[in-house]
Amino acid sequence: MTMTWMGVMPAMTTAFNENGEIDHAFVAQHTRWLIERGCTAIITPGSLGEGNTLSFAERVALWHTCVQALDGRAPVVAAIAALSTREAVDMAKAAQDAGCSGLMVLPPYVYKGDWRENKAHVSAIFQATSLSCMLYNNPIAYGVDYLPQQIAELAGEHANFAAVKESSTDVRRIMAIRELIGDRLALCIGVDDLIVEGIAVGAVGWVAGLVNALPEESVALFYYASSGERDKADALYTWFLPLLRMDTVPKFVQLIKLTQHEVGMGNPRVRPPRLELAGKELETARNIIRTALAKRPQHILTPSGLSASG
User: Fold this and answer.
1) What per-residue confidence (pLDDT) applies to 139?
2) Global pTM?
3) Nearest Cα to 160, choosing from 124, 207, 127, 203?
4) Most CB atoms within 10 A, among 1, 47, 77, 184?
5) Residue 232 lies in a domain
6) Residue 309's pLDDT is what?
7) Sign, CA torsion 196/206/127/131
8) 110: number of Cβ within 10 Å
9) How many domains does the chain have?
10) Does a structural domain hold residue 2?
């Protein structure tokens, strides 16, 4: 299946059962639910999917579940992150074998490296398969910053390097990349509370977090912002922002899973060292979520032109 790297692409959470194992039945249900509500692809397991707590075998099983659940209806993108380049390359090949249509390539965990080392790492992953690749730039989380000129260098050397997930929180990066290479790459926003601003300067995709709980609202927001319906976008964005900001804090996994639980699509279970929210922290989060949901828009125009009840 061809990757276009456009639209709303959930960085999907990974559901766990009471024993702490992946709940594959729910993963399949969640995957279909997101695509049926207008999302264009599934990305798993990134940082929101708690990928660094999953074994190699668990990742492969997760990809198989998502690919089988969608049965060709939409692409599945494998998040590739590992301690070593060798493991990352093996992971990329396993993702292709599992039927994934693209790769989201992260810098190596733990060792940060310089540009020469990081270029060699991501280049090896790009070259490992024929799959379309997205480079994930998140210097805040990973301590590695892929600068616009470095991204342009990679784009000139790898034909299957097709997109960037830009999560530096600096919206100027979108224009800086476009200034160097035009529309050579699909530029996507990876920070939920920057999506309207990102689209305004040329982003064509959103690797989204809160979409796991609120796909209709996420798709509608992307559609309004992309189609220039500023009043509708601003109204929906204003309502959504208290929730979207949960994607930008250290406990974003717990907060997004809690939001899923509050809307009846998931549970708050996480894998240690993460722990579920408790005490005052839980009370505060629930208050923000429930206050927003009490004012949830009732009718949202989707890209299909249908009115979806909130």
Assistant:
1) 94
2) 0.95
3) 127
4) 77
5) no
6) 38
7) negative
8) 8
9) 1
10) no
